[in-house]
Amino acid sequence: MHTIVGLGNPGKKYTGTRHNIGFEIVDNIADDLQCSFKAGKGEYYYAQTGVGAQKIILVKPTTYMNNSGLAVRQIMNYFSLTLEDVLIVCDDYNLPWGTFRFRSMGSDGGHNGLASIIYELETDNISRFRFGIGNYFNDAIDFVLSKFDQREKGEIKRLLSMAKEAIFCWIENGVEFTMNRYNRSFLLSADGDGTEE
């Protein structure tokens, strides 16, 4: 059962912040598939739905970002999931705005949510989709907790749609195929042809 875990912080205070792009991505998928989140048997909300013949679970931890691993471990135990079943979706301030990076394993890259997951699962062998939120800041903490600017707000709808498409590709084809197809920028170029900047 394919499980997409969007990382973020719960509460209105954090809605629309860069650090919560994982929540926004799974919310967008839930809206598209017309399913609703409900409280799980642990520190998370989840929604069960499907894409074609594939059953999927959408997850939003309620632990706050730094303890995301607790929720991931809980839902994996509850549904008897394997590492291959799970995709972590999170922000990355090391990547330019609008850039996607799928990986099948690796370090936390300085992301506290990924660090917590790696710690709780005792492995870094877990697929993740990192969404580039931009790398133009003086203070990383202030930046990730800030809201998107007007330019970014104008681009976010398209990027969320592309993120959904990329995740559906992961569901159907796996992480290696998805890496080759979607690891790039999805900002429109100056001539509007959609190529990488």
Structure description:
With 197 residues, the protein is of the alpha/beta class. It has a single domain (2-182), classed as Rossmann fold (3-Layer(aba) Sandwich), CATH 3.40.50. The chain is 36% helix and 20% strand. A hairpin with a 4-residue loop joins strand 2 and strand 3 (44-51). Helix 2 (68-78) crosses helix 3 (112-121). Residues 189-197 have low confidence and may be disordered.
Pick out its properties:
globular, Rossmann fold, 197 residues, alpha/beta, disordered C terminus, 6 helices
Kindly estimate the percentage of residues that lie in beta strands according to DSSP: 15-25%
Please identify, by name, the CATH architecture. Answer: 3-Layer(aba) Sandwich
Number of domains: 1
Distance between the termini: 36 Å
Kindly provide the radius of gyration, computed on alpha-carbon positions and rounded to a whole number of angstroms.
16 Å
Can you identify the CATH class?
A: Alpha Beta
Shape: globular
The ordered string of helix (H) and strand (E) elements is EHEEEHEEHEHHH
Mind describing the biggest β-sheet?
7 strands, mixed
**Overall strand count:** 7
DSSP summary: helix tally = 6
Helical residues, percent = 25-40%
Largest sheet, spatial ordering of strands: 2-3-4-1-5-7-6
Offer a concise description of the structure.
This protein has 197 residues and is an alpha/beta fold. 36% of the residues lie in helices and 20% in strands. It is built from 6 helices and 7 strands.
Question: What secondary-structure arrangement, pairings included, does this model have?
Answer:
Layout: E1 2-6, H1 21-33, E2 38-39, E3 44-51, E4 54-61, H2 68-78, E5 86-92, E6 100-103, H3 112-121, E7 127-132, H4 140-144, H5 150-173, H6 175-182
Parallel strand pairs: 1-4, 1-5, 5-7
Antiparallel strand pairs: 2-3, 3-4, 6-7
Helix pairs in contact: 1-5, 2-3, 5-6
